[in-house]
Amino acid sequence: MTWENITLQQFQDIHRLSLTANIDEIEKLSRVICILYNKTEAQVDEMSILGFNELAKDCKKFLSTDTIPGKPVRSFRVGVKKYAINYRPTELKHRQYVEILHFSDKPVENMHNIMASLVTRVKWGFKIRNKASNHEEIASDMLNAPLFAVYHSCVFFCKLYRDLIEHTRDFLIKEMMSKGATRNQATRLLTNSINAMDGFIQQSRSLA
Questions:
Q1: Residue 202 confidence class, pLDDT cut points 50, 70, 90
Q2: Phi, psi angles (nearest 5°) of residue 136
Q3: How many other CB atoms sit within 10 Å of the CB of residue 161?
Q4: What is the pLDDT of residues 121-165, one digit of tens each?
Q5: Strand order from edge to edge, sheet including 81-85
Q6: CA distance 150 to 172
Q7: 40-54 burial by CB neighbour count: b if 16+ within 10 A, else e?
Q8: pLDDT band at residue 206, thresholds of 50, 70 and 90?
Q9: Distance CA 208, CA 200 (A)
Q10: β-strand 75-78 against 81-85: which pairing, if any?
């Protein structure tokens, strides 16, 4: 098993597992085997010692890795579907901008939702407009996207997006206040989003 074989959802499942307290390494490895090899806990329990140890050795790197291969890409496939990524924050519709801001407080957990706001379906060589009504369907597709493609693409966009938030902070605060938020609420949301993206970007550097 390699990083190239892992989907975004599997990575998110392992990420959540890595944050779970009070679970020893053997239990974590058992759950990683379940995630990566599509096995039930009962099936893992019934494995031979040699079989378990072989898979556990293979899976251990996904809990303590120092590298995730890949680089930002312009497009990728999920099954037979092709998606292109928009790396220009200023070209986003207001709705997409708000969606990303909403999900950016937890970039890893919401990576499928963030990507769903960035990508455009490509069919027969033509780009199909990203619509709010399709967000949930696209986010579901993103869960099955190859991690090595979407992870670094999301990191790269977050760097651009973070800088844009910094440069348009006053405008964004006024926009959110016009929608009913108080200045403190708007400021807190922007600060939390920037801090979360900073943490995500810093984490990616440690994995580079």
A1: low
A2: -65, -40
A3: 23
A4: 999 989 998 999 999 999 999 999 999 889 888 888 878 777 777
A5: 75-78, 81-85, 119-123, 126-128
A6: 27
A7: eeeebeebeeeebee
A8: very low
A9: 12
A10: antiparallel
pLDDT in tens, 49-99: 999 999 998 888 887 655 677 788 999 999 999 999 988 877 878 788 778
Distances (CA, A) of 34 to 3, 55, 60, 182: 16, 10, 13, 45
Q: Is 172 exposed, middle or buried (0-12, 13-18, 19+ CB in 10 A)?
A: buried
For tokens 């016009």, name the residue. Answer: 178
Going by C-alpha positions, the residue among 106, 113, 114 that lies closest to residue 140 is 113
Least Cα distance to 115 among 78, 80, 165 occurs for: 78
Q: Which residues pair with 75 in a beta bridge?
A: 84
pTM: 0.79
Q: Give, to the nearest 10 degrees, the angle between helix 8-18 and helix 135-143.
A: 70
User: CA 148 from chain center: how many Å?
Assistant: 11
Distances 169 to 144, 156, 201 between C-alpha atoms, Å: 34, 20, 20
Collapsing DSSP to helix, strand or coil, 121 comes out as strand
Cross-strand partners of 82: 77, 122
